[in-house]
Request: fold
Amino acid sequence: MRSGKLRVDGPSILSRCEDVARVKLRTLITAMNLIVGDEMSLLKDGYMLIEDGRIVEVDSGNPPPADRTMRFDSCTIIPGLINAHIHIGDSAFKDIGF
Reply:
């Protein structure tokens, strides 16, 4: 097994979502699965509607109209998740002995 970074052809999902946050459009993101809420409920074939860089609706079924649509048909998305995971050895803390 080789180690290394995952290569992605074209823009990554993260960079595409960051672009959405900068643009004042109604953007619809669809995905195979969305995991939502404190209970981590699974929505199959769900969507997330973003207006002015904010998530305003997360649901499944018939999506609302939008200025543009981004499809992630084989992905699972967790709207609003903040990735607090860091590798301490790779951070600024390594200079102070961590």
